[in-house]
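USER:
I would value a second opinion on how I read folds in token form. Give me a protein, with the fold worked out from its sequence. Write it directly below this note and I will take it from there.

ASSISTANT:
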Amino acid sequence: MSDTQVTVLIIDDEEIIREALEALLTADGYGVRTAATAAEGLAGLGQAPVDVDVVLLDLMLPDRNGLDVLDDIRRVDEELPVVMITAFGTIESAIAATKQGAFHYFTKPFKNDDVLVVLRNAVERRRLVRENRALRDQLLSDSHRFDDLIGGSRPIRAVYDLIARAAPSRATVLIQGESGTGKELVARAFHRRSARADKPFVTVNSGNLPPDLLESNLFGHVKGAFTGAVFPKKGLFEIADKGTIFFDEIGNVPLDTQAKLLRVIQEREFMRLGGVDTIKVDVRIIAATNADLKALVKEGRFREDLFYRLNVILVPLPPLRDRKDDISLLVQHFLDKFTEESRKLSMIVTPEAMDRLMAYDWPGNIRELENVIERAVVLCGEREIDVDLIPDHVGAGEVVEVPDVVIPADGIHFREVMIGHERRYIEAALEAAGGVQKRAAELLHIKATTLNEMIKRYDILPRRRKTGDTDGGGDEID
């Protein structure tokens, strides 16, 4: 148990059940409240926010049906875990309760281990939900969001500060960062924080068009300027007048077009293709690149004078691996986004899955993280995203070198050696998990059913402790 005591509310009309559960849970460190009727239990629950962490609810109560009480509890706190207590003959009703929002159920007579395992899982779920709520609160706070940019780490806050100071000016901006870091979001933040916010924001995909078509898009053309120019056309610079034009991947712009772009920056005027009239515009230019423009200048692939014209306000955008403190916030943001889009209930990420996400260096940056979370939400059939929904390459860790192995002259019994290793790891995991097989399986990153089969195969004896079950007492198996 954690330092903060977890409180469990037991609602059951059988006094012997209430007393047995209270003794079991108190011995395990829980705070316990009890109620014999639905009315008493709901009164003890109070109003939101509730001050209990888990409810153990009997399916059959003298004054109300347990399913109706479940609905009332969920109206008070939708995320409060409710574990149903049911007689063996009403298991179908308990299963229906889980579809109605109950966390789980156990049957009478019950085993202590069954109750404690279910309860620990419910408490863990409650903890994760509260962490998610805290993350959502952070997402809404000014300190962790800047327009559409998300994060509160020192590297990204330096970017926020630069935007806030430079956005009101008309200075040209150069955003430098790897693919997937959110360069366009930064450009839009500059635009929104400027006096041009109510004017157009126009994006130019610099590397996707041949030179002639790119120039036609940028500067427009007059009728008859080239084959197919049946009508005159405004260019993106005219469309962006009084606003902002954003060049995505400026390093891909051909040299001839770079010269014309330099003239627009210097003179704030240009001519349409095939035209003779000069068109003046008031446009702020923001450019972005994932390339080293200085290196391109040395290679003769980018004009030096254009580079210096663009590099007035330089915004170095950090990669995700340098701002890992922001990963949990970004994960929550994408969870909210994709659960809403897919019309699913809110989801949480288990600690093991989050550890995998935190351990990965994200070469594709925020865009790659977004794709991973979208995939997980689509494939998730429950409300928990666990490690099985995280791609194998994410957070898999470094390859561990195997130490030198010496084979004796008479050889070894390979299978016996490997069985010995497996047995020791299983025993160590069970010890670390306090005997809870599900948690031990999580530590070993294998299925609980697989672990159970291996325990039986290797005849690993469970440790015992004196406690007494509600169905007959005796030693309890951990």
About this structure: DSSP finds 18 helices and 18 strands in the chain. The first strand starts at residue 7 and ends at 11.
